[in-house]
Amino acid sequence: MEALAALLADRTRAAFCQALMDGRAWTATELATHARVAPSTASEHLTRLIEGGLLVEHRQGRHRYVSLAGPHVAELLEAMTAFAGPKPARGLRAASASEAMARGRTCYDHLAGRLGIALKSGLLELGVVTADLAITSSGLVWLKELGFEPSKRQVSRACLDWTERVPHLAGAAGAHLCQVFFERGWVRRIGTTRAVVLTPAGELGWRELGLAD
Amino acid sequence: MEALAALLADRTRAAFCQALMDGRAWTATELATHARVAPSTASEHLTRLIEGGLLVEHRQGRHRYVSLAGPHVAELLEAMTAFAGPKPARGLRAASASEAMARGRTCYDHLAGRLGIALKSGLLELGVVTADLAITSSGLVWLKELGFEPSKRQVSRACLDWTERVPHLAGAAGAHLCQVFFERGWVRRIGTTRAVVLTPAGELGWRELGLAD
DNA sequence: GGAACGTTTCGGCGCGGGCCGAAGTGTTCC
DNA sequence: GGAACACTTCGGCCCGCGCCGAAACGTTCC
Predict the structure, then answer these.
(1) Cα–Cα distance between A48 and A176 in angstroms, integer?
(2) Does B3 lie at the interface with A, CB-CB under 8 angstroms?
């Protein structure tokens, strides 16, 4: 455990992991630029993170793409971030960026922030999940109508939201709903960040599903 | 998050936290002896762990008792330990100790190891929990008959077992069952360690509840 | 009051590791 | 083939921090 903590105890490696929480694959240079370190430094950090099982790489030509090793890594990182708590943003640019993140964002493969909490509330009112975020039997039927297929992965999981300090829906169900919302154009990323917004079509769609307030 | 990781990235501090996973309060000297460092070193580490919100202290005369700050800390530590995976034990003494831990142990306030998995299987067959470790409505009734009272704390939670690599039952329900088993003398600690065994009375009790295989 | 004990503060030592730049390898494009 | 580019390896610098022992402080017990 101490070796795992040591991997995340470095400023640069922590920045890499936070960046990768958007669920996409980044190249080594992108991460180096993002964390403001030399490419050589980034290279060594990536090797260590991969050896530690936190990241996986995907080499393609002269590029080295890396991404989180799976949902279990994302869950661990989110749990640690939530424990540390939100730190006050410095500067106007950072403040508006963090406000956008607080409004709505992806947490690896599912929705988080106030948007994620709104989704949870809607699902609770519909009886899809319990207050503890466990899927009900009628909820499972509801999910299957939206194309959900149970797999080995845990269907539902509570993930503590680090901006709202309240659990939101993660696990296979959370990932599936997020995917469906993107496919239908109901949510859209703001630029290339993790922040997302509910589109007008999304508001309509949520209302039809009975998810809106 | 990086600050939290830095706290756990030290060999000595990690040993302190692992020791405290038994749920009890330890004195500074006990922890210093356990981790084989000077009392002065232990003192500084404890101060930092408390400032970081991982531990809480309870001063009593010339003693400084410390314990984990709550179930959320225990859950985080267990998640990180499970991620790192079980490391092979060195030496006969260590091997038999780790075998005892694998057979059954407490994970802060609930049961883990093969005993914890057996409990989960029993609860699953009884229909108290689903395969995803969510409490069913009939399961809640069953728990209340054993004196369980719902609180603000999440009733059920999946906690990845670091020896069995399978989730076991944590949360308020897991803690309550563990407490009941201890009160009834169904489980007993081996010495002063985290390892526990099911007593003959426990085997009988589990059978009566329908928990045994 | 005095001795024993648990804990804390401080000074100083030494190691681990994060950083960079320079040089080298492999890939792509012209 | 040659230039541009992404990445890696290596050497060297330096800061952070974990460690201890000595000394001080507070509590307990006789």
Answers:
(1) 31
(2) yes
